[in-house]
Write a structure and sequence with these properties.
Layout (H helix, E strand, L loop, with lengths): L10 E6 L3 H13 L4 E6 L2 H8 L13 E4 L8 H10 L8 E5 L4 H9 L4 E4 L4 H18 L7
Parallel strand pairs: 1-2, 1-3, 3-4, 4-5
Helix pairs in contact: 1-5, 2-3
């Protein structure tokens, strides 16, 4: 069954990514997708948590309905960000997709132990990267039922 909330409203997505090339590819893939979305981008873990907690310059930040999180981030790495998100009662309900270049088994295990909703290794190939992001969008924003904001 398709999720009706994704059909008629703009979906908020937070991308936590420090690589400008991956940010550009993700934006391109989401633009090509069929879901109307607003993508906010932050370059490190400190900014991600400030955005999610609506602190400082992010006081009017939209609440994301999906977080795409890189693991290898400056200032505060993605594992720490994931742990803080999933320990925060007001944030833990937001699905977090780890989207990273690491294929290391210990990163996969640790991410799931920290309650990541899924773990995807970024493809190096441009076309594959675009397809992966489009499939994330389709799965998480069309197929999966998400709760209304709490």
């Amino acid at each position: 069954m398709m999720n009706p909330q994704s059909e008629n409203q703009c979906i908020e997505i937070l991308l936590v990514e420090d690589n400008p090339g991956d940010v550009r590819l993700t934006k391109e893939a989401l633009k090509e997708g069929k879901i109307l979305n607003n993508l906010s981008v932050v370059p490190d873990g400190i900014e991600a948590l400030a955005f999610l907690r609506r602190e400082g310059r992010y006081e009017n930040a939209p609440r994301p309905e999906l977080i795409l999180l890189d693991l290898n981030l400056p200032k505060k790495d993605g594992r720490e960000v994931l742990a803080e998100i999933k320990q925060d009662p007001s944030l833990k309900i937001i699905p977090v997709v780890v989207l990273t270049s690491s294929a290391a088994e210990q990163d996969i295990i640790k991410s799931y132990k920290l309650h990541a909703n899924c773990y995807i290794t970024k493809p190096v190939d441009f076309d594959q990267f675009i397809e992966v992001v489009k499939s994330i969008e389709h799965f998480w924003l069309v197929i999966v039922r998400r709760p209304q904001e709490t």
